[in-house]
Task: structure prediction
Amino acid sequence: MKIGIAADHAGLEQKELLVSQLQASGYDITDFGAYAYDKNDDYPDVVLPLAQAVANKEITRGIAVCGSGVGVSIAANKINGVRAALITETYSAHQGVEHDDMNLMCLGGRVLGPALIFELADTFLKAQYNGGERFQRRLEKVIALESNKHNNK
Result:
């Protein structure tokens, strides 16, 4: 499984620690930046290459970190094919994959500690999409929303 990771200045320290931990656990990580602290960087700019790589299936799963995780979640979900969610506990880290085929997990580097961040990432990466009829039906509806094949009524 190829994993991508990105962070803005507010998530940089946690991202660097997480990359080390995940690599030590045997994960293949592609770091999409930021690579140095820049208080003026913007989360949409740093999450875009990661989200595009997820959408293009160049990587299997992505992890994005900003201060709260909210900004990267909002920005990543603007890219068709990305199913990103802000995750703060382990149940959603696996359930989001199992039921919703979540492919990009968003984390708050200023609100979560490093031990929990690693636990969430490991849980997310080990989870597998269930693919059952009701989950697939719902996923197809989400994909239709991206394609503007829905009714605005």
